[in-house]
Amino acid sequence: MKRVSIRGVCVMLALGWFGCSNEDRAPLAPIADAQPSSDVAQPIDAPELVDAAPKDQYTPPDVGTYDFAILSFVAAQVYHDFPALTQKSGSKFEVFLVPSVRPGQITQLRVSGPNDFVFDFSNEPFVNKANGYLINPGIPTLWYQAFREEPLEDGVYTVRVSFDNGEVEQFSRELRTNHALLDFYIAHAKEMVFSPSGGVSPANDTVLTWTTLHDLGGPDAVYIGWISSGTTDAITPNSARGDNVYLDALFNPRAGINVGSSRKGWAENPLPLGPQTWHPEITDSNRLDGVNITIFPPAQHFTAE
Q1: Is 0.85 topped by the overall pTM?
Q2: Could you give the CA distance from residue 139 to residue 237 in angstroms, rounded to a whole number?
Q3: Do 232 and 255 share a domain, yes or no?
Q4: Residue 109's domain spans which residues?
Q5: What mean pLDDT do residues 182-196 have?
Q6: Considering the domain boundaries, does residue 255 fall inside one?
C-alpha cells in the first residue's frame, strides 16, 4: 500500500488518469503480522491534557485559489522514430493542471533549468506550432505540451505557472537521461513486431500488440498503447486514447512495465469506424515526473470495422 498525499488525491479525483510527484508518494512501512499474546494487558498512563489555544489566537492557513493546480511535470528527451523525419532526437515538456483551470486564467507558463535555461510555453492550441495546450475529452486535464528539436541538459527543471490573480505555482523534477534505453531501441528497432499492421480489425474488440525491448533481451521499460482515428505519421493528441498507466502505478508499482499489448475498443466504447493510427509509447518510468526519455516507434495503421 502507498500513502497518497493531497496532490495524489487531487490526481485521482480530478483526473483518474495521471500520476503525481514522487515527493508526494512515500511507501508505508510493512505491517507486521499480528501475533497472539498470552500476556495480560497492562494499564498505561493517560497523556497529560493540554488546553487548546484560544480561538482568538488561531490563524487559519493561507489557501490559494490555485494551490495544487499543477498535477505533474515532464521534462524529458524524446525520440520520434517516424520515417518522414530527418531529425528524430529532441526533447519535450509537458505540464498537467487540474481540469478546473482554463488557458485564459494563465498569464505565463515558464520552465527554467541548468545554466540559465529558460523556455516559455505558448498559451494557444498545441496544433498551431507543437507548443501549447491540448484538450482531449478522454483526458480530463488541462494539458500543455511542447516539443523541441534540441536535447535537454541533465539537471533540475522547474515549471512556474503564473495566474491571473497574481498567484504562482511551481513544480520541479530532475532529468537524468536514460541513454541505455535509447541505445538499445535504436539497435533493435527493426526486430520489433506490431499487430495489427494493415488490414482490418473489429471496432469493438481490437487488441494492439508489440514486441517489447525486454523480449529482445533489453532493459525494462514502460509501454503505453495510443490510438487515434485517421492515417497519419503519429497519433492525434486531441482525440487519442491511451492506457491508464500513470494512475495504475499509484497502486501497482509494476504498471505498464514490459507490457506488450493494449485493448482498444469494446462493445460499450468501440473505436470509430474507418482508418486508425496507433503506436506504443516507450518510457523509462510509470510516474510522469520520473520520465527521462520517451520513444515513439513508427506508427501502424489498420481499418476499424
Answers
A1: no
A2: 10
A3: yes
A4: 70-175
A5: 98
A6: yes
